[in-house]
Amino acid sequence: MTAVVWFRNDLRSLDHRALSAACANHDKVRGLYLLCPEQLDEHIIAPIRRHYLRRALDELGRQLGEIGIALDIIDAGHFRNTAAQLSDYCRQHHVDTVYAHREWLLDEMRRDDGCLEKNIPLQLIDDSLLSPLEIAKGDGGPYKVFTPFSRRSRDHLAAKFPTCLRRPQAMAKAVSNPACPVFGEERDSSLWPASQDALLDQLRDFCAERADDYREARNFPELDDTSRLSAALSFGLLSPRQCLARLQQECGEAIWDGNSGAGTWFNELLWREFYRHVAYHFPKVVRGRAFQTYTENIPWPNNQALFEAWQEGRTGYPIVDAGMRQLRESGWMHNRLRMITASFLCKDLHIDWRWGERHFMENLIDGDFCSNNGGWQWAASTGTDAAPYFRIFNPTTQGQRFDAKGEFIRRYLPELRHLSGKALHQPPKSDIYPAPIVEHKEVRQITLALFKNVRD
Predict the structure, then answer these.
(1) Is 335 annotated as catalytic?
(2) Does residue 116 have a pLDDT over 70?
(3) Sequence-distant (≥ 6) Cβ neighbours of residue 359 within 8 angstroms
């Protein structure tokens, strides 16, 4: 009999618990990826992300081929067809066990339940989280605030530091797996590494050369001293265990100090974990609802013209426009700019955070649902651990603080290259760059009133 490893958002051969279990327990192993283009459409997967996914599947096929495992990519059409497709596949290949990593979003859990109901021999293995879902507060309930969650997670990981698994030894002679077919509109993602070796080098270089300075450097988009691994993590080309293990190897005990650069990057891995815990324990956020229920009553004006100006990077606030143009041109945005642009949309333009959440998913190469939703709800003061509603970024001072010399702004707003200093962050009226579409001091007062009225 044959085992099959059902790959989902875990497109790697290193540190893959399901693959290792299948190879240890069976003489014959196949790989399977059920491609669901219709579901990708519904989940608003960006064209650049589709291209990256296809490249990741080609790389996975190469890795598996080296150890003699065939990777079958089957077009299942829609998510709801996966159980039937998997059942047919098991009969065709005489499969006695399907190994897969457990997933925690609502649709994915329902899909797996449907497979079990069809008597598919599905063995689910916990793999994707550093912090098990059983981590809870003293009263047994799930965490709603990041800081105590991160402390509890650190304690758990310090007591039982995760280990990484090697790639399984060859099962048979090497095989040549076919390339993944094109499945919808694409945008070139070649600037983002998809190969195992390149990503491991990128991880190693970051941890060895930039992690120590991460706490200070991470907020300045011109420095670009972030790891740039979010896209790879979102598809599981790297595991969070690999990231943490390499961080400890390069930075040692500093990882446990939340005030160190390495400890700050460790915190970013835990933020990623936290938003997955939130999506599991509070599935209303998966259904498009705000975590803070009272904020559903905010009457967002949702001015379409203002929204389009924000999308196109012509709000008249240079740091906002530079961030939005970075997103449009590259399919990625620096994290500080994600916070600034999201705050501006919700608290200066008074547009529902869900509009911005969707726009980011339509464009981001690392458009992970949990992280994107959590970030937007944080910025809009509607989510767990949300920024207080009265904490409102001033887009001008944010630009002065985090791009003081204007190097990032000038890169994405070439029409402002002739300006410097205060004039760059508050450009004079001209025909080449729009005047501010709102007055920050005025709209700030409107924001405070919108929240106060629904809280009272």
Answers:
(1) yes
(2) yes
(3) 311
Q: Which residue in the list 271, 332, 355, 378 is annotated as catalytic? A: 271
> Which position among 81, 222, 300, 303 bears the catalytic label?
300
pLDDT in tens, 413-423: 999 999 999 99
Task: Please confirm, yes or no, whether 271 is among the known catalytic residues.
Answer: yes
What is Dmax (Cα atoms) for the chain? 74
Q: Please state, in angstroms and rounded to a whole number, the distance separating the CA atoms of residues 387 and 393.
A: 10
In this structure, the number of other CB atoms found within 10 A of the CB of residue 422 comes to 10
Q: Quote the mean pLDDT of the chain.
A: 95
Task: Give me the pLDDT at residue 80, please.
Answer: 86
The reported pTM is 0.96
Catalytic site includes residue 103: no
Mark whether 267 is an active-site residue.
no
Candidates 353, 355, 357, 372; catalytic one: 353
Respond yes or no: is residue 372 known to be catalytic. Answer: no
Task: Say which DSSP state 170 is in.
Answer: P
Active site includes 332? no
DSSP letter for 395, please. Answer: H
User: Residue 46 and residue 185: Cα distance in Å, rounded?
Assistant: 9
pLDDT tens profile 297-323? 999 999 999 999 999 999 999 999 999
